[in-house]
Design goal:
Layout lengths: L11 H18 L13 E6 L5 H12 L3 E6 L11 H11 L3 E6 L4 H7 L6 E7 L5 H16 L12 E5 L6 H12 L3 E5 L15 E3 L2 H6 L4 E4 L15 H8 L3 H6 L5 E3 L12 H4 L6 H20 L7
Parallel strand pairs: 1-2, 1-3, 3-4, 5-6, 5-8, 6-7, 8-9
Helix pairs in contact: 1-5, 1-11, 2-11, 5-6, 5-11
């Protein structure tokens, strides 16, 4: 695999292979010495033009556990804040001998530009670009679902027939987009639920149903309910009347959580707005996978770095 830019580009076999490698990496995390020599001598650059805690630290931990050298780059305090272009930054990384670049950028398509421009020879992983995609988040979500549903027999398994309801700010969510394509590839049935103002104008090509009534969607006994964060920082208009109205109509409150079957998984990509999109009791319950998602993120990102940087990289 040359780059990891979008879940839409992964076929079923590639997705399952990534999840299976992540299982092997998860086994490494349970050892006393949580390191492999696989990427010794390789240099991974975390190139973050947007603030991040979970994703950046997760990629840093993943690269270090594979014995790679890690360089963390933040746009704040760098030449980017002085007006340096993405091309100039990429050429600087090329001169430094970067083997892999993990990029988060506010502009949709920036990772694709970096990967296809010829500015740099490194493998590129998209760690979130604008409102476009966040493929490793979708992979760790699928990995978490597969582990919960299939346990120790998850290797080689997909998510055929699993019903997933994704709720909230779909319009601004790169996590939702990546999950829709990956989960459909793995055989899951996906339904998006949101206020009409927070659904993209055209979802006709998306492999998912779209609804506006959360209670109706939950009556269908989904296997997974994934709540999305309200991304106020990307909103420049009034997309719903107020936070109280949103929580009442589209939030996973105590009443809705109590009505869920005991086996239904509750997911959230984080960070959570407790009391808005999800109640504290739901977030902290045994059905919640929020902490598992964070832990699984390291294993999945180790798998992604391994696929890109170990041995000879193949064609995309």
């Amino acid at each position: 695999m040359r780059h990891l830019l979008s879940t839409r580009e992964l076929d079923r076999d590639q997705a399952i292979e990534l999840l299976d490698i992540a299982e092997e990496m998860a086994a490494v995390q349970e050892r006393e010495v949580k390191k492999l020599p696989t990427l010794r001598g390789k240099t991974v650059v975390n190139l973050f033009f947007e603030d991040s805690t979970r994703t950046r630290i997760s990629f840093e931990a993943a690269a270090k556990r594979l014995s790679a050298d890690v360089i963390n780059f933040s746009a704040k305090g760098s030449s980017v804040s002085k007006g340096e272009s993405l091309k100039d930054t990429a050429q600087t990384l090329q001169a430094m001998g970067a083997d892999g670049v993990v990029i988060r950028h506010p502009a949709s398509g920036a990772p694709h530009t970096l990967a296809t421009s010829g500015w740099i020879d490194a493998g590129v992983i998209n760690a979130g670009d604008g409102t476009h995609e966040h493929p490793t988040q979708a992979l760790l979500d699928a990995f978490t679902m597969r582990r919960r549903l299939h346990g120790g027999a998850s290797r080689g398994r997909a998510l055929d027939g699993v019903r997933v309801v994704i709720v909230g700010d779909v319009l601004h969510s790169r996590v939702a987009r990546s999950n829709v394509w990956l989960l459909a590839t793995l055989g899951a049935e996906v339904e998006l639920v949101a206020p009409p103002t927070l659904v993209p104008v055209d979802t006709s090509s998306w492999p998912a149903r779209v609804g506006y009534d959360l209670d109706a969607a939950l009556r269908g006994t989904p296997d997974v309910v994934m709540m999305l964060r309200i991304q106020a920082e990307r909103m420049h208009a009034a997309f719903f009347p107020n936070t109280r109205e949103y929580a009442r109509t589209w939030g996973l409150d105590d009443a809705r959580f109590d009505a869920l079957p005991p086996g239904t998984m509750v997911m959230h990509p984080g960070p959570m707005n407790r009391g808005l999109e999800i109640a504290a009791r739901a977030a902290d319950s045994q059905q919640s996978t929020v902490r598992e998602q964070v832990a699984n993120g390291v294993s999945v990102r180790m798998a992604a770095l391994y696929m890109l940087l170990s041995g000879e990289r193949g064609e995309a």
